[in-house]
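Need the bound structure for phosphoric acid mono(formamide)ester, inputs here:
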Amino acid sequence: MRSVIDIPDLSLDELKELIDVAMDIIANPQKYAEACHGKKLATLFFEPSTRTRMSFEAAMYELGGNVISVTGAGTSSAAKGESMADTAKTVSCYADIIAVRHPKEGSAYVMAQNATIPVINGGDGGHSHPTQTLADLLTIYREKGRFEGLTIGLCGDLKFGRTVHSLIQAMSRYNGNKFVLISPEELKVPSYVKKDVLQQRGIPYEQTTDLEGAMPQLDILYMTRVQRERFFNEEDYLRLKDSYILNMEKLKNAKPDLAILHPLPRVNEISVAVDNDPRACYFKQVLNGKYMRMALILKLLKEAQNEH
Ligand code: CP
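Answer from helper R.:
Posting the output first, comments after.
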């Protein structure tokens, strides 16, 4: 059964197909209004979420389907000690497709191994968040018109920020891109991402602590929140949380067509004044996430139907 746990689960052709379907949904929403009639999505969120869970649910409703859900680690039998494997087998009896978020890395993979229906990873610990990357890709496509030849600045918590790891996976598959990794020393991109992705593919990248120094060369600036929930002690979080705050002053040497992205939620990383700048794309990114999740649900349900 086909599931999507990490970005490499989707080929470049499939990413293009999802973008094309999302663009068609935007242009012709009525065409898709009954596409999932009679189907059920189960959203299993064992960790807080606003965008991912609600956009999956809105996506399924807009496709004419229904949603059943678990929200919060304490509200399902996981709180009584039920395993992910047993939860996967159980939910497979009720739904046609699962979207899952869990604080443990690898949990979505375990669920996919045990489910008899497609599983979509809605974020597993600090590992991966592939549908956020789909939202990011549609935003880049709509703002820049291409995926190649871009200088992409990633700023903030690059160690625990799973959206960063997935976006590097995705954008390093296109030609001519360069990454500028902007973070405090303690929050650098993990070495497995640098070695297994950037170095293995020969992708140019630089690491710096200086956001303003990096700014003039950037086509995309991807800001991220310092991930409080993944820190071992509060003291370190408090010391690092405001390392980067993007404001209009810091944007003075930025390109006029810079695209500013953020997976959200935002805490302090972007001043609210930046929201009115035409280069701010993070709320467009939220909406793009719903369209890409619609496209992905359609694709996986179609493939599951063809398997039977
Ligand atoms: N971007 C994102 O994953 O947001 P939520 O945590 O609100 O789902």
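Comments: The mean pLDDT is 95. The radius of gyration is 19 Å.
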